[in-house]
Amino acid sequence: MIGGLMGGIRCGWAWLYLAISVALTAREADALVVFSDDFESDVASISSGWGNASTGISLTTDVPSSSGGRKSLQLDAGLGGSALLYHPLPLNYSRLFYRYYVKYEGTEYHHTGGMIGGYDPPTPWPQGDAGLKGIRDNGDRLVTVSLEIPEANRLDFYNNWIDMQGATYQGLYYGRQLIQDLNIAVPNQWTCVELMVTLNTPATASNGELTVWINGDEVANFRSGTPTGYWDAAGDWRMRSGSPAFGGFRWRDTTSLGLNWVKLQNFDATTRVWFDDVVVATERIGCLPEPRCAASLGCGVILLAALARGRSGKGHASRELSKRPRIASQPLWSTSSGPDPGSSR
């Protein structure tokens, strides 16, 4: 009897893994998905699929608990080095959602995390942006949004755009931080990160937006009217109740600049970083659901059938897009004395 039960469990998990694998493959054909990678192939195929890859790339069997795969991406940079994957997107986009899972080995990093941005004109390789304010000497434009560990166990942005605030450092503009007051800890565990970037339209407006979710919970939403705070002397945003409202982002001064690349990077660090289940889409994808189903044959069959039905009527089995993302009832950073950034959404 015990042997039969164990066989059923093994069979059930086999069905469950098959169902999830089908889902992850099918999502790439969905019209909402611009790019995705679950890192289940080999390094050569992954590097080719991204379009631009460095050394220091490998695969491991350490994956998020909610992942349907068996592999994740590992980036090893080393002191003075850089390990990265860069993918040029097929079009210029005014709004994109970028979901990825990340696990940091330690806290000593420099420009390490997930990045999304745009170059005008677009290039199939990553460009440097140190010291720039959204424009090069030759007139080329750029915008970058990077979520990384600037110090200790804290996630923050390091963004570069045309309307950066604050003074220069030795005549140069460096990336601005926005959520330094939140102290978002990132211990040595898998974290689901979601970014939403909306570029301003028209180019003269300050109606650009930026939202970050951590493990499905909205951490911060920057748009015209929220949150309240101020730009400090260094050009970094400080949240403070009772201060003036955020004025919105003027990410660009020409609509020929769009979001047209994503990147995963580990830079100048002896510690490793892992990534998995990357999705870029025109609508929010949300985090992968944690497995709740009992390990049984019936469970696997039911899940497989549900995924196969899909919502497109054409065998679409996207686990990513058929589930509604988990939305926090209130953003983690909001307070009773401050505005509710979800009140108008």
Q: What is the topology?
A:
Layout: H1 2-26, E1 33-37, H2 43-50, E2 52-53, E3 57-60, E4 72-75, E5 78-93, E6 95-104, E7 113-120, E8 141-151, E9 154-157, E10 191-198, E11 209-214, E12 217-222, E13 229-231, E14 237-239, E15 259-269, E16 273-281, H3 297-309, H4 319-322
Antiparallel strand pairs: 1-16, 2-5, 3-4, 4-16, 5-15, 6-10, 6-16, 7-8, 7-15, 8-9, 10-11, 11-12, 13-14
Helix pairs in contact: 1-3
What does this 3D model show about the protein?
- The C terminus is likely disordered.
- The longest helix has 25 residues.
- The protein folds into 2 domains: 255 residues, Jelly Rolls (Sandwich); 28 residues, no CATH class.
- The chain has 4 helices and 16 strands.
- Strands 1, 3, 4, 6, 10, 11, 12 and 16 form an 8-stranded antiparallel sheet that branches. A 6-stranded antiparallel sheet has the order 2-5-15-7-8-9, covered by helices on one side.
- It is of the alpha+beta class and 345 residues long.
Give a quick precis of the structure.
The chain is an alpha+beta fold. The chain folds into two domains: 255 residues, Sandwich (Jelly Rolls), CATH 2.60.120.200; 28 residues, no CATH class.
Find the CATH topology of the largest domain.
Jelly Rolls
Gross morphology: globular
Look at the structure and give the CATH class of the largest domain.
Mainly Beta
The structural domain count equals 2
- Structural class call reads alpha+beta
- Tell me the series of helices and strands, N- to C-terminal: HEHEEEEEEEEEEEEEEEHH
CATH architecture annotation name of the largest domain: Sandwich
Radius of gyration: 21 Å
- DSSP helix count? 4
Helix content: 10-25%
Low-confidence stretches: 4-26, 294-319, 321-345
N-to-C terminal Cα separation, in Å?
Answer: 55 Å
Q: What do the pLDDT scores average to? A: 80
Portion in beta strands: 25-35%
How many beta-strand runs?
16
| Largest beta-sheet characterization | 8 strands, antiparallel
